[in-house]
Amino acid sequence: MKTAAAYIRVSTEDQTEYSPASQLEKIREYAKRNGYLLPEEFIYTDEGISGRHTANRTGFNKMIGIAKSKPKPFDAILLWKFSRFARNREDSIVYKSILRKQCGIDVISISENIGDDKMSVLIEALIEAMDEYYSINLSEEVRRGMNEKARRGQAVTVPSYGYDIKNGKYIINPETAPVIRKIFSDFANGKDMRRIAEELNICGYRTRRGNQFENRTVRYILGNPVYIGKIRWTPDSKAACNGCKPEKIIIDGEHEAIIDSDVWGKVQNRLNTASKVKYMHTASPKVPFMLRGLVRCGSCGATLTRSAAHTSLQCYSYSHGKCRDSHSISIKKINSSVLDMIDMAGLNVSLNLNDKPRVCLEKSADSSAMLERERKKIERIKDAYENGSYTLDEFTKSKNRILSRITELKNLQKKCTSAENNKKKLLNRHINLSDILLSEKITEDIKNNLLKSFIVRIIFYRESGGIEIYLDV
């Protein structure tokens, strides 16, 4: 008896006709009627997931992975319809080809019996094209409906923090709306976004997804017109993906505002001013520094990153309102502290050259053999000349060409021998690590890579001013 797997997919909960239970029931009936064994472990399901792409279809991807096993675990994959397998012709062709040609596994639609003759190939392709057309058309219809709802001021997305949704309309959440009012009030009265986020986190508030508040979270809330009773919508979401600036519509909504227009105006004025100042003082391109990625906050463990002025480090989480303790320290000061500790520990390092000399030495070994071959060529053409096979002119040209090649090989051999000697000298030279880290001739990137080769992390404690260095030993 042949073994089969079953793949079941539904896109939405209201597809009762093609519910997982009904699809599986029909597949079981088909398997029994056609002599297939259908083990429970070979039943794969994806619920509430589109068939346009395979990236998020865990059941599908697991099935394909198992299908590639040797020996093949099953002989066929049974589907309710081909549209359950994929609604993208490219994915359908690729995966069916893998299954049928590489794995010897058939893909069978139990409700679209198309046979196995040459016409079935055309019919199956037509079915797949119709499925893809249906999927694209449905997506366009849904998008068109959402655009129309947005233009009428109705809810079209999940509610923003401070609102719930009921009967397709935003309603104020009595527990989270006060948080929104506090954010707007604090910012309008001069408090910065980092401080606002920090205070919200201290009080135990979390975003709708359960995360801590950050600068960017607060910034998004302050700029969201939903809180003054508006709906903001992007009709063409693909424009942003294509590098274009998408059109946005802002229209009066049907829901109640949480923030009054006066507070909204003050907040927007301050945001605009802050944006202009930020634009005027835009940080210069990132410049490497010796301790990049190594220094951690003694309070929360986050990495200390460089300030816009490139003169100091600060806890990344503190800068975004997620850490309560500032860990600002000048780069010059912490570099000095780290170098002092390295000196006290007496750490040394042996320099290793890159792979270039090694490659050159390999070429040098090859060149010796090549030189010998060229010398033998001279002997052969000399014999040919003496035997009358070569004229004097032919012998001279060939000899000059070979001698030129020998000169090139000798020069290469000489260069590589010199590189080998330099490598031996450097490898025998034991250099103090601090000398390298203090050298102005060594780039910051090289220093950083050198430190990362034996330092796991550096913990900086702001209150005591101390540091701890953890080595990879």
Question: Would you summarize the structure shown here?
Answer:
The chain is an alpha/beta fold and 473 residues long. Helix content is 49%, strand content 15%.
List keywords for this structure.
single chain, 473 residues, alpha/beta, Rossmann fold, Hect, E3 ligase catalytic domain fold, 4 domains, five-stranded parallel sheet, three-stranded mixed sheet, 17 strands, 49% helix
Task: Describe the protein in words.
By secondary structure, this protein is α/β, with parallel strands linked by helices. It has 4 domains: 140 residues, Rossmann fold, CATH 3.40.50.1390; 118 residues, Hect, E3 ligase catalytic domain fold, CATH 3.90.1750; 77 residues, no CATH class; 73 residues. It is 49% helix and 15% strand. Strands 1, 2, 3, 4 and 5 form a 5-stranded parallel beta sheet that branches. A hairpin with a 5-residue loop joins strand 11 and strand 12. Helix 6 crosses helix 10, helix 7 crosses helix 8 and helix 13 runs antiparallel to helix 14. About 7% of the residues have low confidence.
